[in-house]
Design brief:
single chain; six-stranded mixed beta barrel; about 50% helix; globular
């Protein structure tokens, strides 16, 4: 080991220290031989000559000793590294362009990969997270249906595939007795939930067996955030009462920070058995889903087959509408990121193509520089440097530039990541937790290495192949203008143009989709509308008359506010998503097969909702005051949307037909259609409307309603007055949300804006880099052909002919790149179909616009080099021949 360290020290100290030591050692050995020869009686000259003959070739001895005393490969690498650094100092402009170009590509890739790593690749923070499965029920018409309490009990007790299984859903409750009433969100879970997510109490305990069953003691486990923000981190909170919806709950414990299973986060956790545990009807679906941990070496397919056997046994013992239900499951990591996964992968692929363009630019520059250094390479070859030595030198130089680009890109990526987190939608899971970790470090190292190898491939391939005689001649320019080198540079530029066209086409599709979503007719007038969202606590409003009385008074008070022109209420406002769907059937039509019963969205609205939002009634009438809940002489009525009416009566009126909730195989009320309303998309502005059935509030009162106030002027100015009116009616009722409805609608397009903005930025960056590539190639082409252009001019070629000759080079490259780009765009369009709205994924107009933009970019980038070709001084060039 001391010898190894001594060799390493000598290697790192450089040749000067090592050479001095070697010279001293050889001289001492030679002097010893001379002294011995003198002692034998030789003359000084004979003694010195004999000593030299005895010692041998001093140069060879010195080289052998150097190899024995040091690590020659490390020494050579250090020499190459120093030479590369000197090259950077000699060519600062070239080096700066390369480093900045690579930094842009590596930095953008690092930022996007950091997001992908955090959202898609990083394991969930739960024990054995790779075996956690999100479970629901399915039938031939739908997947992911909520699990009934009865089915959950059988699955949990009879399955052979899961170590643990727990149920969960969310609930909204009102906290009172601690200052102002507070609207809270609860995670309603079984006790096994905490074991699945690995939660341990920070204070107190979690649910026990007695609480995890129907009729158990009402207890609550607090989240750390709620405990700190709302209860002041009181250490004596265990055992204290918490009044939720008028019912006291005893605080059992507090969880530590970090549990983010629910999105958005919940304030506390309640025992699910006390909410759903008394349900004995196997067909009664609430909103419960399950999470389970697979046993080791059990596949998801085998586990679902195991649950299906249980469902078949239950169907035989209790036949009915649920007999066709089966188990549905997806790994928890996939369920959390299912909607955003395609978008992030497309963005990662797009930014990877931007890096390829950056590398192609640098490769073209490096190839041009290598031909300019042909004389240098020829001299090194002439003095004995082999091809391997030249390749090693060039590879070290390119890897050094790539490393500097990677370090600069890492600094740029930190800024980009902060920008991504700042402008990204809040509903992307774990986006706010994105950081640089060891996986990101490995990614940066790998792409930096690959970048260095790719950008150095062309110069390395041509190393040692130049014509030594031609390269060593003074002014021998033929060494720099080889056809093979120009063909490689041309191929790189064609690839850049093709990739840029494909990215521009994709960005154009998303931009057109965003414009279509923002400008599409939503079916109502969202401007000048204030949305008041309320959830009445069941303890205070336990009966339908109490709910109706509250909303009746609220409507009267809000109509009296100055500037309010209309007030209406709905359970599920436009773009709020699927607030509830169910089976139905048309009574005067043929009964569907059990597996073909249709599904529609069910909504609840009062008589003024359609006029308040200005949703047109296409047929029939709206809800009237004569519609009363439970009145035997008044039939149940409904209003359907246009999509529903066109589906069943495309050429006739839907008014007067009857529909049955639940379909023909389940119990359910019958409704007469009294009107057809205009289509309003419940799933978002960038989705197509689904069949929807509106039920009158007076016949189906709901405590959870969104009250829409149409006002004159700015709706935000009325917020204080609205809050006061709510408090005057019930001072213990919190307002869940109150804001202009246009703001809520805009939030539904946040993900689309995010993906469109990023892809447009990448396409713009790709176009700029491709423009630089075209400019560099044509500029180099003109430079190496100045003598040829001078000869053409001397032979009488007019300058317009030179312009056409040079312009033809641009058009050939642009046409080849555009053709390949259009083909790539058509092939990639199938991956964009899930992101496109209001326009075809293979839009010819978008492709034509993208092609025109990219070809125009190439022409503009080539304008200066082409113009330079016509300005060559023929006399000056011919004088130097």
């Amino acid at each position: 080991m001391p010898e190894w360290w001594s060799k390493l020290r000598r290697t790192l100290s450089g040749r000067r220290g090592l050479a001095a030591d070697l010279n001293a050692e050889i001289e001492s050995h030679l002097a010893f031989e001379i002294q011995e020869n003198l002692a034998r009686g030789m003359s000084p000259d004979d003694a010195r000559s004999a000593a030299r003959r005895h010692v041998g070739n001093l140069t060879r001895i010195e080289e052998r000793a150097r190899e024995a005393w040091s690590f020659p490969r490390i020494e050579t690498f250090i020499q190459d590294l120093r030479y590369g650094l000197r090259g950077i100092r000699r060519s600062p402009g070239f080096s700066l362009v390369v480093i900045v170009t690579l930094a842009l590509g590596i930095g953008a890739n690092t930022a996007i990969f950091s997001v992908v790593n955090s959202v898609l690749l990083r394991p969930l923070p739960y024990p054995a997270a790779e075996r956690l499965v999100w479970l629901g029920e399915s039938d031939p018409k739908a997947e992911g249906i909520s699990v009934t309490w009865v089915n959950y009990q059988h699955w949990r007790k009879e399955n052979h595939s899961f170590e643990e299984m727990a149920g969960f859903h969310t609930a909204h409750l009102t906290l009172t007795g601690r200052g102002e009433p507070l609207f809270t969100r609860a995670g309603v879970v079984t006790s096994g939930f905490f074991r699945l997510v690995g939660a341990k109490p920070l204070l107190g305990r979690l649910f026990n067996t007695s609480e995890d069953r129907p009729g158990g003691i009402p207890t609550v486990v607090l989240s750390h955030r709620f405990w700190v923000d709302k209860l002041g981190a009181d250490p004596r909170v265990q055992g204290a009462p918490l009044v939720l919806d008028g019912k006291p709950y005893e605080v059992a414990g507090v969880l530590p920070p970090g549990l983010r299973f629910f999105s958005p986060p919940v304030d506390f956790y309640l025992p699910l058995a006390q909410f759903d545990g008394e349900t004995f009807d196997r067909g009664r679906h609430g909103s419960m889903r399950l999470v389970g941990r697979l046993k080791p070496r059990v596949t998801l397919a085998a586990a679902l087959a195991d649950l299906d056997l249980i469902m078949q046994r239950l169907a035989e013992a209790d036949p009915g509408p649920e007999s066709r239900h089966r188990a549905y499951g997806i790994f928890l990591a996939e369920s959390d990121t299912g909607e955003i996964r395609p978008t992030l992968l497309i963005l990662l692929g797009a930014v990877g193509l931007v890096l390829f363009i950056a590398c192609a630019n640098v490769a073209g520059l490096a190839l041009a520089r290598s031909t300019a250094r042909a004389r240098e390479m020829a001299i090194r070859t002439a003095v004995g440097a082999g091809r391997v030595r030249l390749v090693r030198q060039l590879l070290t130089e390119n890897l050094l530039l790539a490393a500097l680009g990677g370090l600069t890109g890492l600094l740029l990526a930190e800024w980009c990541l902060r920008a991504l987190i700042g402008m990204g939608p809040r509903d992307i899971p774990r986006l706010a937790e994105t950081t640089f970790d060891w996986q990101v470090g490995i990614f940066v190292g790998v792409i930096t290495l690959l970048t260095g190898l790719f950008t150095g491939f062309a110069p390395i391939w041509t190393a040692g192949k130049s014509d030594l005689v031609g390269a060593l001649k003074d002014g021998g320019r033929s060494a720099t203008g080889g056809k093979s080198g120009h063909a490689v540079r041309g191929a790189l530029v064609v690839a850049e143009i093709a990739i840029t066209l494909a990215l521009t086409f994709a960005a154009g599709l998303l931009v057109r989709s965003l414009i279509a979503a923002e400008t599409a007719n939503p079916g109502f007038a969202p401007e000048h509308v204030l949305a008041l969202e309320l959830v009445l606590p069941s303890a205070s409003y336990s009966s339908p008359p109490a709910v109706e009385a509250f909303y009746d008074r609220l409507h009267r008070d809000l109509r009296d506010l100055p500037g309010v022109t209309a007030v209406g209420a709905v359970n599920c406002p436009p773009s709020a998503g699927d607030c509830g769907d169910w089976f139905y059937s048309i009574l005067d039509g043929p009964a569907p097969q059990p597996g073909e019963v249709p599904i529609a969205l069910f909504n609840t609205a009062d008589r003024d909702y359609f006029s308040a939002l200005r949703i047109p009634l296409r047929e029939g009438r709206g809800f009237s005051d004569t519609v009363q809940r439970g009145a035997p002489s008044v039939p149940r009525v409904a209003i359907v949307n246009e999509t529903f009416a066109r589906k069943w009566w495309p050429k006739a009126s839907a008014v007067g037909h009857r529909i049955k909730s639940g379909g023909p195989y389940r119990d359910g009320p019958i409704y007469e259609i009294v009107g057809v309303a205009g289509d309003v998309s419940q799933m978002g502005l960038d989705t197509e409307p689904l069949p929807e059935i509106y039920l009158p509030f007076s016949q189906s009162p709901s405590g959870a309603m969104v009250v829409m106030l149409r006002v004159n002027g700015d709706p935000q100015s009325l917020e204080p007055a609205v809050r006061r009116r709510v408090a005057e009616i019930d001072r213990n009722l919190p307002v869940e949300s109150l804001r202009p409805f246009e703001r809520s609608l805009a939030a539904t397009l946040a993900r689309r804006r995010f993906s469109t903005l990023l892809l447009a930025l990448f396409a713009g960056l790709a176009m700029a880099l491709a423009g630089v590539g075209v400019y560099g190639l044509l500029n180099y082409w003109v430079r190496v052909r100045e003598e040829e252009i001078a000869i053409r001019l001397a032979l009488g070629a007019p300058r317009p002919a030179i312009l056409r000759w040079a312009g033809r080079q641009v058009l050939q490259l642009a046409a080849a790149g555009a053709a390949l780009g259009m083909l790539a765009g058509w092939m990639a369009s199938r991956w964009l179909e899930s992101l496109v709205f209001g326009v075809s994924a293979r839009s010819g107009a978008t492709m034509a616009a993208a092609a025109a933009a990219v070809i125009g970019m190439a022409v503009i980038a080539a304008a200066i080099p082409v113009w330079r070709a016509t300005q060559v001084d023929a006399l000056d060039q011919l004088r130097h021949l």
